[in-house]
């Protein structure tokens, strides 16, 4: 395994945790595909051999979600657009009642990359959004001291109605992509 055994405390200084959205509907050309970054999050990753004994816990502060990029659309994304999106996001995610989104692994399985190279892993776990807990599968690829990967999250599984405008002609796609690219600090606890 490329990352030595141990427990690692990770956060924004160690890499990026992103949410990417897409558009659907007849008016999709008017909207933007968004890249939203979690700017306040923590992760505890316990790396064990065999990898199936490893675990992951992630806590994301809803108030720390920030719009980083908006592509597509008829007009460029403005600072006011970004502020409106963040305000809407915090309302939809009910940040006052549910200030955190959490992930707790329940199983780790070695994928096609094999053990020797660190390789690919499937991490199954429970994702809690708005107090609703549903299982998800995260794919992770270890490469040296880095791990990259992500998961598709269907918002409606957690009771979230994707944003829509113009009487439904412009809609946020139900599936969003969560992606991460993290470096492990030297030496775990």
UniProtKB/TrEMBL annotation:
Pfam families: YceI (PF04264). It comes from the Bacteria. Residues 7-185 form the Lipid/polyisoprenoid-binding YceI-like domain. InterPro entries: Lipid/polyisoprenoid-bd_YceI (IPR007372), TTHA0802/YceI-like_sf (IPR036761). Belongs to the UPF0312 family. This is YceI family protein.
């Amino acid at each position: 395994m490329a990352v030595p055994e141990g427990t690692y405390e990770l956060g924004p200084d160690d890499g990026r945790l992103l949410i990417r959205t897409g558009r659907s509907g007849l008016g999709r050309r008017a909207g933007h595909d968004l890249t939203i970054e979690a700017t306040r999050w923590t992760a505890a990753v316990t790396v064990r051999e065999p990898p199936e004994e490893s675990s992951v816990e992630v806590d994301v502060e809803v108030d720390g979600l920030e719009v980083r990029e908006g592509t597509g659309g008829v007009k460029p994304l403005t600072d006011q657009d970004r502020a409106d999106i963040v305000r809407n996001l915090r309302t939809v995610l009910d940040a006052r009642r549910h200030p955190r989104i959490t992930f707790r692994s329940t199983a780790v399985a070695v994928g096609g990359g094999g053990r020797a190279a660190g390789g690919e892993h499937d991490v199954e776990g429970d994702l809690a959004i708005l107090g609703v807990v549903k299982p998800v599968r995260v794919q992770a690829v270890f490469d040296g001291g880095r791990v990259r990967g992500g998961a598709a999250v269907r918002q409606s599984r957690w009771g979230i109605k994707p944003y829509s405008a113009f009487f439904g002609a412009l809609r946020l796609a139900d599936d969003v992509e969560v992606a991460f690219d993290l470096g492990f600090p030297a030496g775990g606890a």
